[in-house]
Write a structure and sequence with these properties.
Layout lengths: L3 E3 L8 E2 L2 E7 L5 E6 L8 E3 L12 E3 L15 E7 L5 E7 L7 E5 L2 E5 L7 H5 L4
The protein binds zinc ion.
Zinc ion (ZN) binds next to loops.
Length: 131
């Protein structure tokens, strides 16, 4: 089956097939769907070529089902979703909304696992607590 990804607000399933689907908006106000890999630490991005953003651009992430903005309260540059693995363990997944930044955090019971070469960037705010 693999991991499930859920919206923290509506608990809707964000993973379809082999992709996690997000509704996004660029700084210029353009909107588009983005597909990300469900594998932590994999950063392939699939998007329609008409939705154009550059490395370093801040991209807002929304749930495609309930349209809530998926932002971590720990850092506004991080998006937040829930993941449920094969053992039904629930974790919080945070990842950077900055195009090209490779960092993901998996948080289970206050323990943080880091993925991606840029993961040191937000580690301090992720470890700071709160949830
Ligand atoms: Zn939702």
């Amino acid at each position: 089956m693999g991991n499930s990804y859920l919206c923290p607000q509506c608990s809707g399933h964000l993973k379809v097939g082999e992709s996690v689907v997000f509704s996004t908006r660029s700084k210029k106000g353009e909107t588009g769907l983005i597909l990300l890999s469900p594998k932590l630490g994999h950063y392939e991005v699939i998007n329609h070529p008409s939705f154009d953003f550059k490395e370093g651009d801040y991209v807002e992430f929304f749930c495609p089902l309930c349209h809530v903005q998926l932002t971590s309260e720990k850092n506004e540059n991080l998006a937040k979703v829930l993941m449920i693995d094969d053992d039904l363990q629930e974790s919080e997944i945070l990842f950077s909304k900055i195009a090209g930044e490779k960092c993901t955090y998996k948080i289970v019971d206050g323990n943080v696992e880091e993925y991606g070469k840029d993961s040191s960037r937000y580690l301090e705010s992720v470890l700071k607590g709160g949830s």
